[in-house]
Amino acid sequence: MATLRLGDTAPNFSQDSSEGPIDFYEWAGNSWVVLFSHPADFTPVCTTELGKTAALATEFAKRGVKPIALSVDPVGKHKEWIADINETQNTTVNFPILADADRKVSDLYDMIHPNASATATVRSVFIIDPKHLLRTTFTYPASTGRNFDEILRVIDSLQLTDGYKVATPVNWKDGDDVVIIPSIQDPAEIAERFPKGFKAVKPYLRLTPQPNK
């Protein structure tokens, strides 16, 4: 299928996993989802990433996010790999790993990039909101581990900017000043929405304290 683009509806699927059969929409419920893919089981970089995901369970939960991984190997190999992950990363994998041996989900989400590998998935991340809309994507080369601090930072930004008419500037992290979006120009509306005031660096660049802090 065509490449998924931001704002598209993330397609539903049914697939086996390390925790049994999963209907994606049913499993996701009203949560945000981070779906991330791996080219194969027993790969070194991915082993560290899955361990980190498990270690961040509390951080994902407090944001209302469910992580779910994917690899093209079958369930039996997933369970062997999970034992290795738990042992080497000193954690307990507490989320499902899709067993996409038939490449059904990989094809649906355009995870097979022939110039990288004709058979294995690239290492993608999809951040999907409770309405099943695709909000962010990352794609990494096999040699570079994913930055989960950045994944959490993007989720914080998405959840904040969904609730308030702001955007987050460069290197923003939770608690930093934010930008008032340019479409808000009425002084009365600005005063009502941002009672802590703002600093106008330029007419189009107005910084205000994070409104939910």
3D architecture notes:
- This protein is of the alpha+beta class.
- The protein folds into two domains: about 15-145, Glutaredoxin, CATH 3.40.30; about 165-210, Antioxidant, Horf6, Chain A, domain 2 (2-Layer Sandwich).
- About 30% of the residues lie in helices and about 20% in strands.
- It is built from seven helices and eleven strands.
- It has helices at about 25-30, 45-55, 55-60, 75-90, 105-110, 150-165, 185-195; strands spanning about 15, 20-25, 30-40, 65-70, 95-100, 125-130, 135-140, 165, 180, 200, 205-210.
- The strands form three sheets. It has a five-stranded mixed β-sheet.
- A hairpin with a 6-residue loop joins strand 1 (about 15) and strand 2.
- Helix 2 crosses helix 4 (about 75-90).
- The chain is elongated, with a radius of gyration of 19 Å.
- The protein starts with 13 loop residues before the first strand and ends in a 5-residue tail after the last strand.
- The model has no long low-confidence stretch (mean pLDDT about 95).
